Amino acid sequence: MDKKFLERVIDALRHGESLPAEWARFLFPPEKREAELVYDGKEREEEILADIMSVPLQPVSTFGLGTGWHNKLIFGDNLQAMKTLLQMKEAGELRNADGTSGVRLVYIDPPFATKKEFRGSHDEQAYQDRITGAAFLEFLRHRLVMLRELLSEDGSIYVHLDGKKAHYVKVLMDEVFGEQNFMNEIAWCYATGGASRDRFSRKHDTILFYAKNARQKLFNVQKEREYYDKPFFNEQKDEQGRYYADVIMKDYWRIPAVINVSKERTGYPTQKPELLLERIIRASSNEGDLVLDAFAGSGTTCIAAEKLSRRWIAVDCGKLSIYTIQKRLLHLSGALDGMRRQVGPAAFTLYNAGLYDFASLRKLPWQDWRFFALQLFGCKDEPHQIAGLQLDGKLKGSSVLVFNHDELAGKRIDEETVRDLHVAIGNQIGKRFFMIAPRGSFDFQQDYLDFDGVRYYALRIPYSIINELHTRSFTALEQPRDEGAINATVDAVGFDFIRPPRVAWLASARKTTGGTGREAVLRIRSFASTTRTHGVDVAGGLETFAMLMLDLDYDGEVFDLDKFYLANDLQRASWEVPIPVDSIGKQVMAVFIDIYGNESREIIPRNKFGLLSGGPARTVRNRRQHAA
To answer: pTM of the entire structure?
Structure first.
């Protein structure tokens, strides 16, 4: 037990705080592991669990009808989102169908960190991992530690990898989950892709299957059909007269990959087939159980879970991922599951985790605002009084006041206000005191004021970072500008507030090449965005543009992604997008996204392109019920 952790324990006990449940493994450590990976920058598990920031989930939109549990699609850094989910588990809010606490099944398909290149939908490098070697292993290890804590005691995790890093990750998972809980190395075999002339062609991925506790794990035996040329031990024939037997499934799976002509193809790089996920979900969960995918990508886990009547949580830091998943779910109505039953998505809610809409926050009722404000800064919701003053919570053992901007409308917090507060309670609050309020409510610019050895911190919403209170600098949710970065690893820390970029665009129509018809054209004329880094606003132009998304027949309610264009592609095309005239409905919704994940939305009526009214009709059956 190192000095830093010991000080945390002592400080918590001194202030009468309950010790977090995850500290038990460090206060009462299990037996030492026989082997572990050693590399530069490796943190202790207790540091990982203690230092990760939790970020509140801000509802954006809810789709479908239903009361009670809503499936969760979360836009944000998965590590921070998982810390919040862990708090939900500890509060009893994550339970499986049989009432067990936690998530029954985790599947993740993380970036492989292989510098592997292959062709994508735009015939370019479609996959280029940014973090390699030790940094990648630590990136993944942080997430594996959190996922272990989120699992139910009888839960399982499947980690999808390729041959370049699978052996490293196997050792890593032995360390995190225990070698005794290793169940299988599954080989997913496929026939697609190129052939190699200097080695054996690589035609499989590796999926590592671990239980949280091998003796308790839930596992449903799966069978597959094998065909024979002549009668075997179980003499059966199918409709074509072929001999077959249903045998217990082995650890090599022949499942076709998603290719250009696949019916389920979305165009999202690295999309996995639904059959692969259905097999995993059937084996390690039951109907009504919770399934978590922390690298959600194209959303195949969500779709497979829906078809198999499981509940799900999906997290991704990419806007392209989020809108791809949303579209797939909304168009799921009418699909058939494996039992030939009609499938439509259960109610699900889209959340922001780490990038927030301040305008919506200001409209929250006071109690909801108070709760969100405490969550945002990692404070404990612990109402108490000092000298008759009602306070709201604790942060690192010190008192927190959430300023009631509704009840005290027009009131300001200036230096005199803080001085009066100090006179009233300064000798009873220790060395620190925290005040949370909208940024505009403070009349001083400093991060804190000192009076007689007591430091009064101003925690502003929208947030400007106070470096003294955090061990790491805040980083943004970086969005890709080219296809090679779509699946890049992102390790965001902290949170920010949405600042819609400013866009100038021009819609027109012109003759197609060859002059045989007409096409609509959308051209980006200028783009400007702003983010806040270390308390300073940083402005940028087209170099901060990430992608354009289009709904070509926007219904006025739900954005339904039809096309996306990445910045590098648009730059090569002089920032112009040609659109077939017959694909445009009454109006187009254009979503312009900067590299920080901020959006600017524009509705473009058909006549803005110089086109007559009309256009194709399209129906999406599951519409948004409300916007939160």
So the answer is: 0.84
